[in-house]
UniProtKB/TrEMBL annotation:
Compartment(s) of residence: Membrane
Protein name listed in UniProt: LHPL2 protein
Organism: Erpornis zantholeuca
Family affiliation: Belongs to the LHFP family.
Bilayer-crossing regions: 12-35, 96-120, 132-154, 183-203
Cellular component terms (Gene Ontology): membrane
A Pfam family it matches: L_HMGIC_fpl
């Protein structure tokens, strides 16, 4: 018989697992990893809101995507174009970024799988006599290691031709040059830290769902058990 067990700690772990997976996925897909040096607008570029010349803008560069301003778009309100610069994996600007993409993708795939499974932990607490919380916590720890490897390798690619076109000639491995880090990089770091917190917190979720109070309610014949 399926017993639906909801505790404060298990629910918090589930929510954190989902948030971490989405945060890492959004960061990976974003083009805001590097914010390039300011590029002045031409005298013909006019701001539609003020009627004056447009301010200098900062193009952004991601692992496989970029955002840049398109000039002379008179019939469109949008003047910034975002999209992938690499049509396939081999066109990613640096071998280090290719490795970063692989490690981040592997970590994110594991996190998304755990996030999907975590929704069902309210009804299924074990698989083949193994605690599903402990298994998911182990997977989150492995995903965190993949994410760390990806984030360590990413700055090594700052000296590639694509990066130097955005960051200037002084950009090199682990040196930003004229660029600055965008929100996507910080989000990826924050998500990695939360991944390890989730991995540790999974043990608390397992303890909460297998506590004596839960066992007492199961013995009383309750199918829906909610504990704070």
């Amino acid at each position: 018989m399926c017993h639906v067990i909801v505790t404060c700690r298990s629910m918090l772990w589930t929510l954190l697992s989902i948030v971490v997976a989405f945060a890492e996925l959004i960061a990976f897909m974003s083009a805001d990893w590097l914010i390039g040096r300011a590029k002045p607008s031409s005298s013909e570029d006019v701001d539609n809101r003020t009627g004056g010349p447009q301010e200098p803008y900062h193009p952004t560069l991601g692992i496989y995507g970029r955002c840049t301003r398109i000039s002379h778009m008179q019939f469109s309100r949008r003047d910034t174009l975002c999209g992938p610069y690499a049509e396939n994996f081999s066109e990613i600007a640096s071998g280090f970024w290719q490795a970063t993409a692989i490690f981040l993708a592997m970590g994110i795939m594991i996190l998304c799988t755990v996030a999907f499974v975590s929704v069902f932990t309210m009804c299924v607490q074990s698989i083949m006599k193994k605690s599903i919380f402990n298994v998911c916590g182990l997977l989150q720890g492995i995903a965190g290691l993949f994410l760390i490897l990806g984030l360590i390798l990413y700055p090594a690619g700052w000296g590639c031709q694509k990066a130097t076109s955005y960051c200037g000639p002084y950009a090199s491995a682990y040196k930003l040059g004229d660029c600055s880090l965008g929100w996507a990089f910080y989000t990826a770091i924050g998500g990695t830290v939360l991944t390890f917190i989730c991995a540790v917190f999974s043990a608390q979720a397992e303890i909460a769902t297998s506590s004596d109070k839960v066992q007492e309610e199961i013995e009383e014949g309750k199918n829906l058990i909610c504990l704070l």
